[in-house]
Amino acid sequence: MICRILLIIIIFFPGFIGCAQDATGFPESKPSFFKLVGKTNWKLSLKDFAVSLEKEGKVFELRVQGRHYLRYSAHLKGVADSNQFGPLQHRHAAELSRLLEYALFFAEQEKNDEFAIDVNWQMYPQSIQKWATVWQDSDLRKKWDGMNQHARYQKLMNMIADFMKEDMQTLAQGLGFEATGASMEKMNFQKAKQLKYYDEVLEPAGIPRDLKIPIPLMLSVLLKPSRDASAAQDPKPKSTCPVIVDYIFATAKSNAASVYCSFRRSLDEYEITGDLNKPDGTYAGILPISQKEYRSIATQLLRASLRVTRGDERKTFSLRINLKLYPEVYQEVVERFTLSRQVTQKTGMPRPELQHLQFYEYEPLSASGFQAAINPFLEQNGYRFRYLQISVDSKRKAASYPEYEKEFKPLGIKPEDKLVIPDIVYIVVEKK
Fold this sequence. Notes:
Elements: H1 2-12, H2 33-37, E1 43-55, E2 58-65, E3 69-76, H3 93-106, E4 115-118, H4 125-136, H5 139-143, H6 149-167, H7 169-174, E5 177-191, H8 198-202, E6 212-225, E7 243-254, E8 257-264, E9 269-277, E10 283-285, H9 292-309, E11 316-321, H10 327-339, H11 341-344, E12 359-362, H12 370-380, E13 383-393, H13 404-408, E14 421-431
Parallel strand pairs: 3-4, 9-11
Antiparallel strand pairs: 1-2, 1-7, 2-3, 4-6, 5-6, 7-8, 8-9, 9-10, 11-14, 12-13, 13-14
């Protein structure tokens, strides 16, 4: 009887045995974006992506750019802009390590790579207080006015690099790295009293109100893999918080053609675009979702994006498009929204991610050929077209557009008419 039950489990739930899952819902091997895309003759690149996790009302985010540039940020759950705090602290090492581990798997990177980690220094009052004390007592500050400008700035950058190397070492070791220095740009000398935490942090440490503290506006700490095995141990306790993917920008190249895939959770949108590098060095837009020669790679990129962002678990999703690349339906929308009261008086539909814009539901006429062009792509992915979701711009008169005579006048639009132009456009699709 037990054997029969186990056989049923193996047949109907093959992932139940031999495929343990972590808190993200992925197998422990954490499939990379590239594995999700699958085999292709196109050259793939993950240019930019962001992941995040939430713990005890705090949201921690990691953005990876160009494979080697890390940018951590954090905020209290709610309004991100007004609730930010500095995450690069040892007490958050478990969360930072969790994000980094996930990101490395996602991008198929090794921890033996070197990285630069962005530091918004002013978000770390205790570090600024220690630096202000070092700067106040330094010979460099006392000799500053009498030194050559190039020489004194070089010494200052070396001094900051040495300070950051020491100050960030404990955190770097918690992530399995060693801080080796820092790079910086745009030095700003700021009076201590101008820092919002002066009264609470700097004044008790004896920092004068008028002390000008050099703080780079752009600062990153350089990391290399730790040579000390004991220092590279995972932080305890290890975080098991679910990680989600918030942003993706990936490219696929083949000869002169490039296809771009992006996802923005903040806007709840996916996008597949592309261009062709012409012999004269200029670029022409291509339509990966409607041109047959690009449909296969576009399908692979979209499926991977839906899988890793869990968009494939939803009934509908929004695919952003540049409607100008579909001239027939673009002109149709301009004509009908400009001249037809029935269309322009439709009640706008809200889009929570873009509350300042008014969107309209629109179904193109069959004569435009729009649905016929995109349906093979949608059906190949198991979806069907529902409608276009369009926001419009109607601030200018038709005559003010350079293309009026050629494109809009033949539609019967008068020079004094307020032209209604499609702005942000989504294809809203649903599972078949």
